[in-house]
Structure formats: structure tokens, C-alpha cells
Design goal:
The structure is a homodimer.
Chain A (H helix, E strand, L loop, with lengths): L8 E4 L1 H7 L7 H12 L5 E6 L12 H7 L7 E5 L3 H10 L3 E7 L2 H8 L3 H17 L4 E6 L3 E2 L3 E2 L2 H14 L3 E6 L6 H11 L8 E5 L6 H10 L4 E4 L19 H10 L8 H15 L6 H8 L2
Helix pairs in contact in A: 2-11, 3-4, 7-8, 8-9, 10-11
InterPro entries (chains A, B): Aldolase_TIM, HMGL, PYR_CT
GO molecular function (chains A, B): hydroxymethylglutaryl-CoA lyase activity; metal ion binding
Keywords (chains A, B): Lyase, Metal-binding
Chain lengths: ~300, ~300
């Protein structure tokens, strides 16, 4: 029988990665009420917003107010995305327990997304990471397009490894490997983890899947068979794909919990509370979210 | 690395299991045009309709006309669902290459679905199977609710095995094990296959997953790790769940093909043609189908 972890840690990224890719504006008060619901679900980490310039992510322009007004649960670690030292300063002011920096494993996706080459991104992230660490905050490094890039196609595991090496050298505590366009199949997950786990212990690696083609749950299964027990997910499967406006977003926390609890894996998260928070944000967005477990529960007779 | 089959055979059940659970009536001419499209996709088997009394499945009341008028591709095996000898006679008249009989592993689901106890169902199926074999037609036995029953909960693998034993004794050529309510997680698939494959060779067993909670692709991965290389799927994820009107149906052929082809597994099916046939039936139903790969391709920019 499969060898699976007994415990899996979920980071809820709906308020950041989810909303970042939604076109609708969610009122700040609704965001706060919703994050407060998530804070009571038993989830241990919530990425509550992004301190990227609002010009680039208007949906999260209220990051400071959100950070200041959410009710902090002492059992939850609150993180936010920070692009540079200025963003980090705003985030520290608003309150974070952990900072998240980001870049791509693909040169052209990095240029498209951050407007810098990979080489030019390193010194920026180095400074942010050092300053966050000086402020006593752990740092997660997001590496995106670790399997496929919308511009370059297949990304070699060695390219991903090179970026991981730099980020760990700069001092990140862990790295979240992102299937940004939700294109990977389990054999790609195997190949990447064979490479990465040859150099770093499992507990330093988080897997971040998008469910664009419905492969995310299978990819999580494969990751767990490699001992990975930390995953990013987004409530209801919020988000979407900038390259396909009708496509699914991050893997849904609801579906991940259905899988994990069904497998007898402990998460500490209350599915009922995740369900309620999903219906809340679904109502605010005014459209059905892509999570199949959510659709099932919402319509069960 | 995982040990996976090199070739997987898909049975397209959209025209039967898919449409059976859709509320909209699809015109007979459209069904025929659509099945003709599927016949040109490279798929080797299509279940084109059901000869159950139209009172129970009004969506497929035109089974005879469909069977008579579809353009038969000599490389495709055309099957249909038959509940009894009368249904089999109609199916033989309309033209079938293979007959499918069905029952549940759960007593109460069987009573609900067929209006007979499991014990009373056996002699009916025995006669159909024998008569189909006398007419030179191979027979597939569908066993539903092999993991969980909506009335009884968890079904023991030993119960499923007992039904399989009977059906093989009556002469079925193979058995399709159905996760009718789409509730299984991979550990359940493992447990069932450990039991069933202890008694029967892999090539006699087909897995039939519904994607109600988004677990089907992971369950297919697990099945393939046990050597299973025959799956039922439904184009676009057509269908739905009688217990949850908004929930997903059969696992989508589109998503299965994305997985299999991504893993380098041969199917002989042209994804582009499946995509076109999906958009055709989606247009006739007038609603978005649940396949995530379809949603991605349909909206990619």
C-alpha cells in the first residue's frame, strides 16, 4: 500500500493568489470578514494579501487595510506577498508573521511577470529576504512555472534547482514550487521531486498546484508519495488562469481536504467551516467556484 | 518511478451514462451526429444508448432509432445498456457489438435502482448474459456503488467480489467497477483492487469513476499503478449526480486524455476531435460541461 504522510499542512492562499486572479472587486470589509472566517477553520497559515504595487494587482489594493483590520488568531501564521523592500516595509507595518517572495524558473515568464531577468531579480530578492530575516520573519520563496512556461514550454528540473539554490543561499526558510499554469501531470512531479529532494529535505518544499486541467489532486497524491506534506490551496478553487479566462484556479482547499481526510491524513482543518467560507466568497463573487466538492455539497439533496 | 501501462483503452460512455443523467432532451438527429463525431475520434468503444424502459430513462427513449441510424465505424465497438432479455432483443435489433448488464454491489442501491434485491437480480442477468453470448455478443457487467452507497455508506470489497464472482460465473467477459457517487479516494481504490485482482486478471477489470468530488483523475492514477488499463469516461464530464443536481458527472474523457497523453500513455484517441465533439454537445445542452481541460481549451487566449 502507498506510503503517505500522517499529517499535511495546508496554506490557504485564496485571499492572495485566489483573489489576485479574479476580476471582481471584493469590498475590504467582506475580505476581512472572510479572512476572519478562514482564521477560525483550523488552517495554520493564511496568505492574506499582496504588497505588490496596486497598479499591477488592483484586486488587492487594500492589502494594508486588510492586514490592519483582520482579527488575528494566535494559532494562525499570516503571510503576504512582497515584491521588494518597499513592499516588505508596508507588509511589516500592516503585520505579517511570514513574508513570501516570488520569481519564475522560466526566464521569459519572469520577464513578463516581474519585468526583470532572473539574474536581475536575484539581488532584489536577496535584499528583501535579508531585511525580512533581520525583522525576525521567516521567508517562503515562491518559484513559479516549475513544470511548464506559457512562453517557453517545458522547464527542466535543473533550471528549477538552480533557482532554489539561489533562494536558499539568500536565506529563505522554504520554497513553494508552483505549477503556475496548471499543466503538470504526475510524471513531471516525479521528475522534479527526484531532482529537488536529492538536494533538500522534504520539509523545506511546498507544492503549489493549479487545477487548470484537473490534474492537481493527482499531482498532490504523487507529491505525498514522495513525502511532501505541505501544500498551498485556495478555498473553493478561487482564482483562475490569466491565459484562459474561463479556466480553473488554484487547487481547491475543499477538494484537497476531501482527499486528505478520506485518506485518513490529519490537517486540523474543519471542512464545514471551509464550506461556509467558500459559500460566503462565492456569494460575493456572484459565480460558482470551480471546486467539485463544493459544487457537490452546495447541491446535495 | 511509477510503473504505468503503455496503452490504455477508453470506453466513451457519454451518450449513455452522460446523457442519462442530463435533464435536457437532445434531439435524436443531434445525438446521431454527435456519436458519429465520436466514432471518428479514434476511441475503440462507444456505449451509444440504453435499452432500459424509457419510462425510467426518458433522455434515452430513442435508443432504437439512434442504434439504427448511427454510421458504424468498423474500428469501433458499439455497446448499449440492457436490463433484461426484452431490452437485449431491442438492442440486438438496433445493432450492438457488445451488451452491458448492470447491478449494484449495495443491496439498497440495487433495490432503489432496479427495484429488485441482489438475489432476485441474478437470475435476470444470468438469462440476458446467456442470450447475449448465444447471439455471439460479448458482455460487460457494470457493478455500481463499489466503494460507497448513498444509502448504506461504505461497501466492503468482499461484497463487490461476491457480485463479481456471480457475474463471471454467468459468463460476462469483463466487469466495470463503478464509483457511482464519485466518493472514493485512492486508498479505497487500492483496497478494492487488492481484493479483486487477487482473484481476476487486470484485463478483466475496467474502472468507472465519477468525478463528483474531483477525485477521479487521482483514482485513475492509482488504478494504473495496479496495472488497470481500461477506463470508462464521458466526453466533457457529461452527466451529473442524481443526489446532487449541480455536481459533476463521469470523469471527463478530455481530462483523462490530458493525463494519459501527458504521461506518454498511448490511447489512439485524437484530443482535438474529442474537443470538437465536446463543444458540439455543450452547445446542444446550453451549459458549460464540468471538464477542466475543456474549460481551459475553450477559453485559452
Amino acid at each position: 500500500m502507498m506510503n503517505l504522510p500522517k499529517y499535511v499542512q495546508i496554506k490557504e492562499v485564496g485571499p492572495r493568489d485566489g483573489l489576485q486572479n479574479e476580476k471582481s472587486w471584493i469590498d475590504t470589509a467582506d475580505k476581512i470578514a472572510w479572512i476572519n472566517m478562514l482564521s477560525e477553520s483550523g488552517v495554520e497559515e493564511i496568505e492574506y494579501s499582496s504588497f505588490v504595487n496596486p497598479k499591477w494587482i488592483p484586486a488587492l489594493a487594500d492589502a494594508r487595510e486588510v492586514g490592519q483590520k483582520i482579527k488575528r488568531n494566535p494559532n494562525v501564521s499570516y503571510s503576504a506577498l512582497v515584491p521588494n523592500v518597499k513592499g516588505l516595509d508596508f507588509a511589516l507595518e500592516a503585520g505579517i508573521d511570514r513574508a513570501s517572495v516570488f520569481m519564475s524558473a522560466s526566464e521569459s515568464h519572469n520577464i513578463n511577470n516581474i519585468n526583470k531577468s532572473i539574474a536581475d531579480t536575484y539581488p532584489v530578492l536577496k535584499r528583501v529576504i535579508e531585511e525580512a530575516k533581520r525583522s525576525g520573519k521567516p521567508v517562503t520563496g515562491y518559484v513559479s512555472t516549475v513544470f511548464d512556461c506559457p512562453h517557453e514550454g517545458r522547464i527542466a528540473p535543473s533550471e528549477v534547482l538552480r533557482v532554489c539554490e539561489k533562494l536558499f543561499e539568500f536565506g529563505v526558510d522554504d520554497i513553494s514550487l508552483g505549477d503556475t499554469i496548471g499543466s503538470a501531470v504526475p510524471s513531471q512531479v516525479e521528475q522534479l521531486l527526484e531532482t529537488v529532494l536529492h538536494h533538500y529535505p522534504q520539509e523545506k518544499i511546498i507544492m503549489h498546484f493549479h487545477d487548470t486541467r484537473g490534474m492537481a489532486i493527482a499531482n498532490i497524491m504523487t507529491s505525498m508519495q514522495y513525502g511532501i506534506n505541505r501544500f498551498d490551496s485556495s478555498i473553493g478553487g478561487l482564482g483562475g488562469c490569466p491565459y484562459a479566462p474561463g479556466a480553473a484556479g488554484n487547487v481547491a482547499t475543499n477538494d484537497v481536504l476531501y482527499l486528505l481526510h478520506g485518506l485518513g491524513i490529519h490537517t486540523g482543518i474543519n471542512e464545514q467551516k471551509i464550506q461556509e467560507a467558500s459559500l460566503f466568497i462565492q456569494g460575493k463573487l456572484g459565480k460558482a467556484l470551480p471546486s467539485k466538492s463544493l459544487a457537490y455539497l452546495a447541491s446535495a439533496i
